[in-house]
Write a structure and sequence with these properties.
The complex is a heterotetramer, with 2 copies of chain A (about 325 residues) and 2 copies of chain B (about 350 residues). Chain A is an alpha/beta fold and about 325 residues long. Chain A has 2 domains: about 1-180, Rossmann fold (3-Layer(aba) Sandwich); about 195-325, Rossmann fold (3-Layer(aba) Sandwich). Chain A has helices spanning about 5-20, 45-50, 60-70, 90-100, 100-105, 130-135, 150-160, 210-225, 245-255, 270-280, 305-310, 315-325, and strands spanning about 5, 25-30, 55, 75-80, 110-115, 140-145, 165-170, 180, 195-200, 205-210, 230-235, 240, 255-265, 290-295. In chain A, the strands form 3 sheets. Chain A has a 7-stranded mixed sheet with strand order 3-2-4-5-7-6-12, sandwiched between helices. The longest helix of chain A is centred in the last third of the chain and has 16 residues, at about 210-225. The radius of gyration of chain A is 19 Å and the shape is globular. The radius of gyration of chain B is 21 Å and the shape is globular. Chain B folds into 2 domains: about 15-315, Rossmann fold (3-Layer(aba) Sandwich), CATH 3.40.50; about 315-345, no CATH class. Chain B has a 5-stranded parallel sheet, with helices on both faces. In chain B, strands 4-5 form a two-stranded antiparallel ribbon. In chain B, helix 1 (about 15-40) packs across helix 2, helix 1 packs parallel to helix 12 and helix 4 (about 90-95) packs across helix 12. Classes of the chains: A alpha/beta (about 325), B alpha/beta (about 350). Chains in contact: A-B, A-C, A-D, B-C, B-D, C-D. The structure holds thiamine diphosphate (2 copies) and magnesium ion (2 copies). One thiamine diphosphate (TPP) sits at the interface of chains D and A.
């Protein structure tokens, strides 16, 4: 069996859902003949036609708005943001229209908005963002952030089948760097809202998601070898809804927790997670729950600057040591 | 019902019954709003009240051009369009009064409610947003090869939004079966059209999107019907998007609390002489499409219907607080009750 | 001396700055002849002319974008969002353009975006929002949320004089309900980034801002009378930057803390505050830091529903009792 | 420098010196890009590389129409406009290579940098955003009664954004001294113009905004100069906004990695015969505006300047990590160093 990359896993997931359900269609910029800048939709327009793989004008509001309208009527649109940074242009449409439609008006709006997110690729301030914090406080949306090829496939398929709007933030750093065997013919579906223990441990928990999972695993390995520490890595996979139970179970087990994310610290998703830990596992904490996150600046372009601003494996190691010895 | 003394051929191919029907919808719209005004004064309307006085013609005429199966999305002032498409006065009254039995169970205001079966999709407040959304509905019609049409209203103000631009452009490129009706009523809140656009006519935007454009007298319900009908036909036959500009005037303030201090003296009065209901009645009478008893019959029917609706809902309760958390998602079905509302966390 | 309402205080603050500095100008929808839907800019166009009080088309992106351009050149624009909910339409412009301009490109962008926010007024889902959480994770922006007439005036003036972009979220429920004497001729300037102890106390801290300050004060009073509890109410006034020192000082004093806000819970600002408390005052906590916030739903219109979804004084009292007896 | 064998009157009122100047800027643009291509192949360009091959004429000609004091905002492909407005090859090289000494100290990419004194404001990536921003700069010119003009570039693609629409409309209503130059190069990434708009010509959008509109051959640097100059004059004299559509063609991919698989065969080749530099050179020669030594002199100058710039910056360092946190705000001057970077929290 051959290994499937994270990128190919997303592609396969979309492809399978397109084959399975003719209500599924794709809408976005340059997703047809080009297959998108990263080729996530490669070959799809040739296979499914220009009506189901729609190249749009540069109009993120129209992409999401039109998807919503089609979704109300029973279709299942998958929107691509060419870079996820441009989801900011559809912020009103997503938060005010899409997210509220079911509650306000009983409108079903099953749609997916996906796109390449994340840094570590020298993309500069507008091609590196992690927009999850911008949408976390929007009831009505779901947010998923896969770290592995398996989950990339399983979550994109689950997102497409979900009855509600799902933001699928795929990490471009992982596209071709992460791969695994995905088992021929097996139907992979990752339930939205369920975390995954990426590495078991007893001394300390790192709660994280997306590309940071891999850095956390590296850190855990180093801490095992160098410090004899048993670090559990919890890959949240979904941020909305958040798998509170898994977080609490891990924290109650280890009593020390680090929440790590790539986005800037202030107002980032870690705040929410730490508040929940505080609410649900306060008595079990032997040290303050702490955060590792990017520095509070727009993401700069130069390698030296980007490397400093974004959290690195070394930072996780340092933070874990601090926590372990608290 | 068509009377013997008819002297001209039926305008826009409408029968006498239909012409009287148009009168019914306009009258229903205006009378329903008048009822809402008294309810508002009595403090029974929970939020604001938005009038379409003087604009009933463009709402009714344009919506009347749609077939069953077509879907429209109104603006705040398209009460008439909603009624034509099957929304009932009872629903509207309940919405304004935030009743438990209202279509949105008290969650949304005024005419922000939907029934895709009957063919209307309520708007949201951010202006322009419904243009892309209705483009999506038209996209669905096109993709599923259904000969159905979408119609979306925008104001002279809403046309300045980015959402309008992106939505109409996308629909134009895709040649979607969509009619975009611009209700040019001279104002967006206090802002006169000349501060909204430097274009001479809003319909001049059509060539820039590569779509058909047409302008008509929005206070002539039949003319409105006629141009919209043509645009609907074009859309249904695969001819793509039309921008229809309907010239009308907002005789009341933006909402009930607005004293219209910004309106030049005499302007409103001038438009009172151009009332769409008066004009249509005059046509019915002079061209002989309806008798006085026909007209009186409509008026009585409207009164009766509104009396009944009001009687039914006036004392209905607000929704129960316990309903507040359901239905944000299909799954989980309800948001959790916050800990401070329960015994303890 | 007469009392000045919260609304009039904002109006006075803007007026004074317009008189003082002719680089200050206003831009927004219906702010001229109408004076805005709430009359915050009443009389200003008559006084300062249509060039300094500009009625725009319905174009939030253009309002903020044009303000940014003018600010680069040395002017000091104050933008009105007719209701703050529509700031969502300018989300890209604010987060990607305005917030990053100084860091990316050394561009000064002193501008204010203000508008009526908040609920308790039967405004329904699109005329009741509290958008602070949407912008908290955007380095480069400042966020202020006054609770009193004095701070409304002092903060709008400070915001206009600030060298960086400031989001000024004024609470429409307070417009005419809150008033105080503002001292003739006194120049009121509230420093951005400094909290205020609205009521001193020793048993428990409520950290809050904007309209919720008044409910917290009511709750504190009831808890004093009925339970003999001494509750400190900390009015943050600014959310970005956050007055960490004031929060920590209060929590270290009382060892019990409730963070209360009107916005929905998940992803709300309270998460960030609790994470900071955890980081900086963990050892002092005698009970978990807890949140009172709105239920996680779009804000409904009917009075019964709105009252249930938004936090009320009773809720604060119940939550404080829970904390006090923990 | 103007040669004796000149046979026609000077086009667009340009002197021979100016005509040769136009050649210099186009050649500098193209040669600088060619240097960047080799640097990119050598892995010295940190991010992507975006070419304007075949579009140098529209960038240079339009920017050349501005006076000192005027401000422009470029697109990714308006390297030529930046150079004309005073950005230096050294700055551009440093930007692409993310050097500490680059205008943004390594924070931003390629031509995303500014100098309002020299008259350019770098773009941000979200397309369309610079239209409202440049409207704001033009608003400043108008409010302060300065006879200065703003010029903003948009692509055939960027015109589909809401930000474009809101910005140009606001500028139109306010009659701001703004020129909006649409570089219609046939594609937005892989998307051909016909999937971007159903309009026959992008300039057909002008009447919908109530502004002047004009279209020209963007591969004719003099024609480009001429129409832009007229638009700039109109703006400076209080005549408001002009939309200038310049017809050109993007001969390279969207960025260096793009294999242009979506381009119909033969299309690129056809446009190679319409190269703006070749055309301008032919004019210089046949109309006698420059001698061969004049031209060779320019070529040598360009080589010299680029050699010098490259020699200066090639081995310069990246910015020091310690600079990463300064300048998010005027006050506080720097973001805090995260605790995990320090000894402990
Ligand atoms: C994006 C957005 N900005 C501002 C508002 C506030 N607002 C509500 S109605 C209105 C005026 C609308 O004018 P127009 O589109 O002409 O419709 P009309 O009221 O005349 O029917 C404004 C500014 C809004 N609803 N949405
Ligand atoms: C709002 C937004 N959406 C998507 C993109 C991604 N993107 C970058 S360049 C580009 C194509 C631009 O085409 P055009 O405006 O015609 O300019 P050209 O590259 O042809 O000069 C796209 C889609 C973006 N930068 N901004
Ligand atoms: Mg209007
Ligand atoms: Mg292009």
């Amino acid at each position: 069996m051959t290994e499937t990359t994270y990128l190919e896993a997303i592609r396969q997931g979309i492809w399978e859902e397109m084959e399975r359900d003719d209500r599924v269609f794709l809408i976005g910029e340059d997703i047809g003949a080009l297959g998108g800048p990263f080729r996530v939709t490669e070959g799809m327009q040739a296979r499914f036609g220009a009506e189901r793989v729609i190249d749009t004008p540069i109009s993120e509001q129209a992409i999401v708005g039109a998807a919503a309208g089609a979704a109300h009527m029973g279709l299942r649109p998958v929107c691509e943001m060419q870079f996820i940074d441009f989801i900011a242009c559809a912020y009103d449409m997503l938060t005010n229209y899409v997210a509220t439609a079911r509650y306000r008006a009983g409108l079903r709006t099953p749609l997916v908005v996906r796109g390449p997110s994340g840094g570590y690729v020298r993309g500069g301030p507008f091609h590196s963002q992690n927009p999850e914090a911008a949408f976390l406080h929007t009831p009505g949306l779901k947010i998923v952030c896969p770290a592995t090829a398996r989950d990339a496939k399983g979550l994109i398929k689950a997102a497409i089948r979900d009855e509600d709007p799902v933001l699928f933030f795929e990490h471009k750093y992982l596209y071709r760097r992460v791969k695994e065997e995905l088992g021929d013919g097996e139907e992979i579906l990752t339930p939205i809202g369920q975390a995954r223990i990426a590495r078991g441990g007893t001394d300390l928990t790192i709660v994280t998601w997306s590309a940071m999972v891999w850095k956390a695993l590296e850190a855990a390995e180093r801490l095992a070898v160098e410090d004899g520490l048993s670090v559990e890595v919890l890959d949240l996979r979904s941020l909305l809804p958040l798998d509170e139970a898994a977080i609490v179970a891990s924290v109650r087990k280890t009593s020390r927790v680090l929440v790590a994310h790539e986005d800037t610290r202030t107002g980032g998703v870690a705040g929410e997670i730490i508040a929940r830990i505080n609410e649900l596992a306060f008595e079990w904490l032997d040290a303050p729950a702490r955060r590792v996150a990017a520095h509070d600046v727009p993401l700069p372009y130069a390698p030296t600057l980007e490397d400093f601003v974004l959290p690195q494996t070394d930072d996780l190691v340092a933070a874990c040591r601090w926590l372990a010895t608290y | 019902m068509t009377s013997p003394q008819r002297v001209t051929p039926p305008p826009a191919g409408l029968t006498g019954v239909q012409l009287l029907d148009l009168y019914y919808w306009m009258r229903l719209t205006r009378s329903l709003e008048e009822r809402l005004v008294s309810l508002h004064r009595q403090g029974k309307v929970v939020g604001g009240l938005f009038r379409s006085l003087g604009q009933e013609g463009d709402s009714v005429g344009s919506a009347y051009a749609l077939d069953p199966g077509d879907i429209l999305s109104p603006l705040i002032r398209n009460l008439g369009s909603m009624l034509v498409k099957g929304a009932t006065p009872l629903e509207v009254l309940r919405q304004y009064m935030a009743k438990a039995a209202s279509p949105t169970a008290g969650r949304e205001l005024n005419i922000h409610f939907n029934d895709l079966e009957r063919g209307f999709l309520g708007q949201v407040s951010p202006l322009g947003a419904m243009v892309p959304v209705m483009a999506g509905i038209a996209l669905y019609f096109k993709m599923t090869r259904q000969p159905r049409v979408g119609l979306v209203y925008v104001g002279d103000g809403a046309m300045s939004t980015g959402a309008f631009h992106e939505g109409i452009n996308f629909a134009a490129v895709q040649r979607l079966p969509l009619v975009v009706v611009c209700e040019n009523n001279g104002y967006a809140y206090s802002t006169p059209a000349r501060l909204q656009t430097a274009a001479e006519r809003l319909v001049d935007k059509a060539p820039g999107y590569g779509i058909a454009g047409v302008r008509a007298d929005g206070n002539d319900v039949v003319a409105t019907y006629e141009v919209t009908r043509e645009a609907v036909r074009r859309a249904r036959e695969g001819g793509g998007v039309t921008l229809v500009e309907l010239m009308t005037y907002r005789r009341k303030g933006h909402a009930e609390h607005d004293d219209q201090r910004y309106v030049p003296p005499g302007e409103i009065e001038a438009w009172e002489g151009n009332d769409p209901i008066d004009r249509h009645l005059a046509r019915l009478r002079t061209e002989g499409w309806a008798t006085e008893p026909d007209i009186a019959g409509v008026d009585a029917r409207v009164r009766r219907e509104l009396d009944a609706a009001l009687a039914q809902c006036l004392d209905e309760p607000f929704p129960d607080a316990s309903t507040a958390l359901a239905g944000v998602y299909a799954d989980p079905p309800a948001a959790p009750v916050e800990w401070y509302r329960r015994a303890a966390g």
